[in-house]
From TrEMBL:
Example of a GO MF term: metal ion binding
Organism: Streptomyces zhaozhouensis
Annotated Mycothiol-dependent maleylpyruvate isomerase metal-binding domain residues: 15-153
Annotated protein name in UniProt: TIGR03083 family protein
Superkingdom to which the source organism belongs: Bacteria
Start and end residues of each MDMPI C-terminal domain: 169-263
Gene3D superfamilies, A to Z: dinb family like domain
Amino acid sequence: MTVHPSLQPSVDAWTQSIESISELVSSLVEGEWNRPTERVGWSVRDAVSHVIGGECEALGDPRPIHSLPRDLYHVTDETSRYHEVQVDVRRHHTGPEMTSELEYTIIRRSRHLRNERRNASDVISHPLHGKLPLGQYLQLRVADVWVHEQDLRRALKQPVTLDTPAALVARDVLLQRLPGVVAEQAPVKSAVVFDVSGPVEFLRTVRVDEQGNGSVDSSPSLGPVATFTLDWETFTRVVTGRLRGRRAAEKVKVEGERDLADRILAGLASPW
């Protein structure tokens, strides 16, 4: 049995990225598992734990019954609390325990995807994302794995992989964050442009309509209230909360209303 053709691109992208993670961490010594990543509050071990946990939930495994410590400063809302359970429950696992669980999870999930009989439009339920099409959920998993793959690469001083199939899926998923953030800050009947260069190059306009709802498209705007010009890697780090505050402002060229631009950048600071 083969996966439905509508799902195959996402499955291929997921496979490439998660196997890259497995290769990255396969020979780490114990101290390297504790290196901090750009994801606030998470080490290399934590990022891998998050990936493992996400795939276990995709497999339908029950979530761990685990009480979080009260001193985790980076746990600030219910979403971060949800993600932290799968991370904290593995914080004392050794390197060999981590690599073994990751490899076994990849084997299980790969078999699960090969036997997938549903198509991209079939609706599933997820405790965090609610009801959504299976194809969209797989794209979220691809983007999540790819983002944390880059976290691991930067933490371990390895070259990032910015132009893989998973990167293209991540682009489409990350762009979906923009309308909500921009609409919270920009005035009605306005537009904000993101001009992104590099291995994944694009120009997108976020428009806020008369009701204050945001949407994104590829048509240029003649009079945007703000234009962000940045490279693809910086875009991914800003939109996932890896670059924040002054560090983000230093790497992003802004034309237009600076105060508005700063508020939008701040709104994008919530960690992925």
